[in-house]
Amino acid sequence: MRSPETVAELRSWHADWAGLKVAVLGLGVTGFSVADTLAELGAELLVLANRADDETADLLDVIGVRLVLEDLETELAGFAPELVIVSPGFAPSHPLVLWATSRNLPVWGDVELAWRLRDKRGAPAEWLAVTGTNGKTTTVKLATAMVAAGGRRVIACGNVGVPVLDAIRDPVGFDALVVELSSFQLHYLDSMSAWAAACLNVAQDHLDWHGSAEAYRAAKAKVYRNAKIACVYNLEDDATREMVEEADVVEGCRAIGFGLGIPGPSDLGLVDGIVVDRAFLDDRQRAAIELATVDELTSVGLGSPHMIANVLAASAIARAFGIGPADIRSALRAFHIDHHRTETVAERDGVRWVDDSKATNPHAAQASLSSFDSVVWVVGGLLKGVDMNDIVAANASHLRGVVIIGVDRQPLVEAFGRHAPELPLFEVKTTDTNEVMPMAVRLSAGVARSGDTVLLAPAAASMDQFTDYADRGNRFADAVHEMLGESADDDKPSAPESEQ
Q1: Among 266, 222, 264, which residue's Cα sits nearest to residue 244?
Q2: What pLDDT digit, counting tens, does each position of 276-317 carry?
Q3: pLDDT tens for each residue of 461-483
Q4: What is the spatial distance between Cα 5 and Cα 16, in angstroms, rounded to a whole number?
Q5: pLDDT given for residue 493 in this prediction
Q6: pLDDT tens digits, residue range 55-98?
Q7: CA distance 92 to 122
Q8: N vs C: which end of the chain shows fewer Cβ within 10 Å?
Q9: Same domain for 283 and 358?
Q10: Of the residues 67, 85, 105, which one is the last residue of a structural domain?
Q11: Residue 54: partners with Cβ closer than 8 Å, 6 or more residues away
């Protein structure tokens, strides 16, 4: 039996993992990547999950990994693991996690394991780590495009793209991994020392998983721990600045701010409609480097304030990795924004229909709402324990009406009754998934006027009534096109990143 101290010393692909008894909690994409990796290293594995599709179960059997789907705690205790690796969905309060922590067993996430195993191909790739309540995926994809434009071999991974463990096992290898990290992943991550790390913003989210706003913030702050070159933070979000100030980093690591105002030295920002860098140049006290114009960003769907902020953060990350201004500009000009992020799906009779189904929390929804003057707001879903009063009060004055969907409708009804009692309000009460969006669209059309935007920005997770946020957005778009008698665009995403 290996002690926790001995397990903690396993910090290389080439260490002795053979025979290590590892329990893997969960069998989604993450759980399978963990099992597949450790099976290759010769560990003795037990995968515990509430469900598994037949194909994945068969693959586990092929690689010699045992899977159990019932009596999980009994099976876990009988296995007597030396290490437990958890998928991101397992909260610290989950009974299986509590079983492990109460016995002082090491409990890691897949990203912690990947950091320890990153030297499989020799000199490991540098990690460019991104977290935040909102904007992570767009920022990661922007930074990846910028690094690729600079001629480096790079991949987006983690909470978007491929699992980090698959990236570190790529047979060719990479110069850099741009790693999107959810708060769930960060909770179980301790060893990472990123080349550059960014927290884009912090707002209340996932309080049901973390237990408190303080615990959620503490998880996000871990992205900066041991950062080597740059800690990128939001000049307009004091929490991110405080995280950087509190972080224990490698000596010489710089704090790089980004914001929509005129930047100071060591910052990126805007000057007269131009995106500029005052951080990565010799004469940053008196000069700045132009990276792009706001007009250029607008032409590719990146012109709204929250998208410009994402561009600034990604540019800071890429510049920290040595990518030149011309390559950043080239990447921005060629960039295409993803579906379901303030995506216009139709316009008719002066009414614009916009899908921002990716706005799965109030902070993201606020960014969308602030982009439009007069809104019919389609809102609701799984609220994840978040208070909706502030966002309702902040936006009541420019709402034409509200259509509430989802299972957690009552807190929203009460918030609108408290802060906007005169506002036309409609509830979609059906439990038929196929009818939710057609009803929401019909109700929205009934109240919308020329000059309005009907905005799907749910401020909530989607899994109460839909497969995921992409399914929710696709159904909204389909309902809009059907009502307007138009053909829907067939270019729809089928595998979105998780709502973390």
Answers
A1: 222
A2: 999 999 998 999 999 999 999 999 989 989 899 999 999 999
A3: 998 999 999 999 999 999 999 99
A4: 14
A5: 39
A6: 999 999 999 999 999 999 999 999 999 999 999 889 999 999 99
A7: 34
A8: N
A9: no
A10: 105
A11: none
% of the chain at pLDDT higher than 70: 96
Range(s) of the domain holding residue 267: 115-333
Q: Is residue 337 predicted with pLDDT exceeding 90?
A: no
Backbone angles phi, psi at 205, to 5 degrees: -165, 155
Domain membership of residue 6 (yes or no) is: no
Burial 378-408 (b: 16+ CB within 10 A, else e): bbbbbbbebebeebbeebbeebbbbbbbbeb
Report the distance separating Cα 309 and Cα 134, nearest Å.
11
By the 8 A CB rule, do 160 and 180 touch? yes
Which ranges constitute the DSSP H helices of 354-495? 362-369, 389-395, 409-419, 433-447, 469-484
| Average pLDDT of the residues of the chain | 93
> Count of domains in the chain?
3
Six-digit token string for 377:
């707001």
Q: What pLDDT is attached to residue 4?
A: 95
* Greatest mean pLDDT range, 151-155, 429-433, 461-465: 151-155
Are both 156 and 293 inside the same structural domain? yes
Same domain, 190 and 266: yes
- Residue 5 within a domain: no
Confidence of residue 204 (pLDDT cuts 50, 70, 90): low
Spatial CA neighbour of 268 closest among 193, 195, 325: 325
Same domain, 162 and 297: yes
Residue 491 lies in a domain: no
Residue 413 lies in a domain: yes
- The two three-digit tokens of residue 173, written as one number: 């290898």
Q: Is the pTM of this model over 0.70?
A: yes
CA 429, CA 407: separation in Å to the nearest integer? 8
Give, in degrees to the nearest 5, the angle at Cα 166 between 230 and 142. 40
DSSP output for 64-87: T-EEE-SSHHHHHHHH--SEEEE-
The token pair at 178 is 């741009």
How far apart are alpha carbons 97 and 91 in whole angstroms? Answer: 8
Confirm if 25 and 97 have CB atoms less than 8 A apart.
yes
